[in-house]
Specification:
The structure holds 2 protein chains of 2 kinds. Helices cover 54% and strands 10% of the residues of chain A. By secondary structure, chain A is of the alpha+beta class. Chain A has a domain at 70-133. Chain B is built from 15 helices and no strands. The chains are: A alpha+beta, B mainly alpha.
Chain lengths: 185, 451
Amino acid sequence: MSPTLRLPGSVRELFSPPPKPGVLGVFGHLDTTIAAIKQLREAGHTDFTVYSPIPRHELEDALAQPVSPVRMFTLIGGIAGCAIGAWLSLWMSEDWPIQVGGKPIGSIPPYVVIMFEMTILFGALTTILGILLNAAFAARRAGKIMYDPRFTNDRFGIFVPAEAGKAPKVESILRSAGAEEVRRG
Amino acid sequence: MADTHPAPPSRVTYDYVTRTIARTLGTPSRGYFLLLAGAVTLLAIGIITLLFLLRYGLGLAGYSHPVYWAVFITCFVFWVGIAHSGTLISAILFLFRSGWRTAVYRTAEAMTVFAVMTAGLFPLIHIGRQWYFYWLIPYPNERGLWPNFKSPLIWDEFAIGTYFTVSTVFLIMGLIPDIAAVRDLATGWRKKLYAITSIGWTGSNEQWRHYSRGYLYLAALATPLVLSVHSVVSWDFAMALVPGWHATLFAPYFVAGAIYSGVAMVITLLVPIRYIFRLEELITIKHFENLGKLCLLTGLIVSYSYVTENFIAWFSGDEHERAAFWYRAFGPFWWASWTMNICNGLLPWLLWFKKVRTNITALFVISIFVNIGMWFERYVIIVVSLAGEPYTNWTNAVYNPTWADWGIMAGSFGWFFMWFLLFVKNFPAVSISEVKEVLPPPRRGRVAASR
């Protein structure tokens, strides 16, 4: 990037934050990963990130995560979609009133179909929005942290943010729990 | 996870799954290119036919009064129907926690998206002046005109539009973790492509937390949607006062038929994919047997609907309704009705036998006959009901599809298979993360193994 295009410091940091110091443990087994999570939580760590190739309820339970707020997005999107469907069909019929089949201009039964489809459409789209936004906010909170390409294949991983002084303690927790590999970054 | 899924051989580990599926993205074989060339040729035939239709008008197709809904609308309903089983397998079986769906759902879901894309072309071709298609969309215009929301055709536009959007985002959502998995193995331009399309997926606990929840809600929204879409398609007919169309049975009848034809199409597509990409250990006989059972179930519902339809026509005492069904079975289009009855009503009875359900060749042949039968079902319902309309002075009108009808239909198959073949070569055609979900996770301790 040419120097004239350089973004101001705070904005540049937003898009490309400096790497966060910490320790990354690579695990080959689910149970050792869960043991490490439990020991880390007992040692008072809460801001670590767990990588896994698949979602597992055991991991969720060990992390004691609250239910994702995506459901609120779905609910609000669905209700909004239903309302938009009702508004669309009722208002547009009133704006250009034509009698069809001897039915009233604002005729609810046929409009239920439109309302239903719009409920699904908006519900689905806001669900996607909810996933993207929540995941992006979580990534923003976690910062730029270490990752290993094996985590999408067959390895589990835990990244614990830690300053240089605290890192050896974390490393020993990860090792004793059964990490195959522990790296500092 | 319940033990409904087939027990995988022990050498099927997480790593094996990732590598086997990532291998399908490698350099394609000659067979693949031959199939792709065939699809593109068919598409070219369709495009040339469409250019003729644009130049000389819809008169080139076989329309003749009173048959103004003909092969194009038949193909539209056929392709929308094909789409349905994809959502059934990916959403409804997901909610039912059916483990066996994981190996086949991606193919089924991709089929859904491309089948809806194909179906959507037909109303546009059928209207003749494609450049006015946007009149269907409610948008503010200088004449102050709005669409008629009491018309089933507008419901259909909303239903198909929603279905296309939702099934596409559902497919893309499912793909994200798998694209990340192949990103981490790929090199070169593919790595760049997958790095962009996996939008930063790492499999962190926060990502899975929101993703799993969101996926559940998408499945919950897609389930009523799939039932609604073909119901709305059926109302295109059932709302009209045409004998043979005007029946309350139509919505469930069409939904069952849609899933039936779709499952058959999934089998038709999976057999060659499994063979070309050597996926025998991931897509097992057990999966095919389950698809066969699904085919049998929906086939029986469809057969029951045929019986009910004919019974009600007789039982109603309505002479027009009776005449319409007599015309179907014994009129000039008797061959279409009997093709439909034999392919859809009789052939699936073979699936009662486990030997047939577990024989891939037999399943493949039956699935193709079911596809033919389901195409003829729509032909019988649409064309034959109109041709036999007793109210008109053109009773027993002569209707014959022309080369333009067949050219467009061939083009639709080319269009569908081209997209499908491009998809399976460039994106994981079997879900990597979900196949892993039904495998026992790697554990070191013996204590936790009981779960």
